[in-house]
Amino acid sequence: MPHALRPPAFTPLPLGAVRPLGWLHNQLRLQADSLSGHLDEFWPDIKESRWFGGEQEGWERAPYWLDGVIPLAYLLDDERLKAKVARHVDYILAHQDEDGWLGPRQSFIHATEQPAFDIWALFLALKMLVQVHDATGDERIPGAVERCLRLIDRHIDRQPLFNWGQFRWFEALIPLYWLYERTGEAWLADLAIKLHAQGFNWAEFFERWPITEPTPMGRWNFMGHVVNNAMAIKAHPLWWRLSGDERDRRAVYDMIAKLDRYHGMATGVFTGDECLAGVDPSQGTELCAVVEYMYSLEWLLSVLGDPAFGDRLERITFNALPATFSPDMWSHQYDQQVNQIECSVRRRNWNTNDDDSNIFGLEPNYGCCTANLSQGWPKFAAHLWMAADDGLAAVAYAPSEVATTIRGQTVRVRLETDYPFSDTLHFTVQPGSALKFPLLLRIPLWAAGAHVTVNGGATQPALPGKFHRIEREWREGDTVLLTLPMRPVVHPRPRQTVAVSRGPLLYALKIGEEWRRIHADQPQRELPHGDWEIYPTTPWNYALAIDRAHPERSLTFEQRPMTGLPFAPDRAPVAAHVKGKRVPGWQEASGSAPMWPGGPATSEEPPADLTLIPYGCTNLRLAEFPLLE
Ligand SMILES: [Zn+2]
Asked: What is the spatial distance between Cα 216 and Cα 278, in angstroms, rounded to a whole number?
């Protein structure tokens, strides 16, 4: 009996339906003109990848890169990038094996000492191909996807899922459902059931949850692997579409709550360097985990339609994502620290990562992030808008334009805004001719007093933590003004420290930076893609004077000119001013700020005027602060 897939709350739009505008467009352009857009020209793991007939890495890096560069190319409608994508995809499709295998066969020595083929990279390749089909309608792709899924179906009968494929089994549901929704063939549902049965049961593991402490030194493991956890957040809601089991819908809330409680950071992500690492803000979070958490949240918004996932998505995207790149996006970190006072090659308190993990470079620690970083901004942009109830939902906000078809009629909506650096969002609805449909606007939970005005008319209040629905007959040029008031919020952090946010932005102490180039003699480090250490030129060891009950009395915010590319310390479009005092006893240890010992800070130092800027604009910073007594 065929299984019907439960419909998602919102349906993602095909690649190309959403176009970035304003600062978001500039950010994607910057990405295309830096590492992501040029990696295949000089980095052996892509340039000479076994995926493209070379002799270098032949597992996940080429499909990771394509998985991000494909949406980048089509969102920007960039001919040069689209040609690159087409050339590489043509090669992969032309070299699909007769049995359906895509790309090189990567073998691992299994526990039985028998070589076995890990099929994780096939899941990645399939997700990447589906995006190409959505953007281009390439007729070769449904057949190639079907042949590969039939191969997986036969393969796991004899070689059950193990390692990465076992812990990331749910990623295969994305291309599998894509094909199932087109063909309705029962074997695809059966394959999904087999993958679920062989895959790691994340929800059951989390119910009992033994990882409440930082992973002990050197105890690398799949269950506590930070990227696996960031990916697994979407596992059960995706599976719910087939299982229909309410527990699968709910499992995600338990997973996020436990990750926040035991490993959460003020940025909305959790630590893992490279396994879950506790709540010390000097522990690291791997860049792959940042972009995979974002991608998981994009699916959660689609399947469950809960606006809270939009709040979390924005918090990670506007803070953790830009912070872990150099402002020019030519270099990135493997691990970012929330309290990051020096980026240098030094032994730090990482669980298993190498000494170079927090420098800004080409491939610090390990090259997975170098390839996988490509998906962050483009997939965020592609998922800002989704189809909902024969209308449109804005699930996350950034300047953009969406074009979709509603009851056979092409409708465009344009969002002009400097959000998240401004609290006003101007929408222009362009239905061509009059058309009735609902427009759903996400009202973040923090936006008390949010309000909406249609065509300059009466102001309507909008409830935080909900989608505000405007259903009317839209006419060409109708406007909606959404105001999301932003107030400072002080968040409790461990050991009586605090973090400061306003709207979706987290604020961090601006620390003076001295960039020092390293590894200049190493291969592939010719500028502009060099390796860099960053040393502080101003003090960092401050405690803040904040009235927790009335933070608006302690913090004053200054709006600065909005620049085209806002994520750099000297281009921050908004700054906060606050009083603080240095705490001389709190001293750097091995290049990091030691975890605050607890309690309020005492200091005999004179009061200082401190400047906080958005976390995403910083490279060095303090973002979890002690408070003065
Ligand atoms: Zn990585």
From this structure: 10
